[in-house]
What does this fold into?
Amino acid sequence: MIGHEARSSSNERGSMPLCSSAAFWTGHVGRQSLDSRCDRGELIVVKQAELTSASQLHRYSWEHLEDEHGGLTGQAIDPEEDLLETIPAEEFQRVWRR
It folds into this structure.
């Protein structure tokens, strides 16, 4: 079950998720919708949905790591470097189930 309990702080780019033992984050990075969890101080992507310009949806998770179109990122989300847009967990689920 995905909820929305991302913690945030303000900086020059607005509200950004912080990683704590109870935090998780759902959001957009470019054309990707991501669901992440905090693990050892890092936000680790556990589900990733990519919508192509041709409106094809590719889904990746720990159960489906990769295919011929791409794969689940192995990089942690860095709130200081990545252009993040936080979204409600329900919106991520809507994209994921599309």
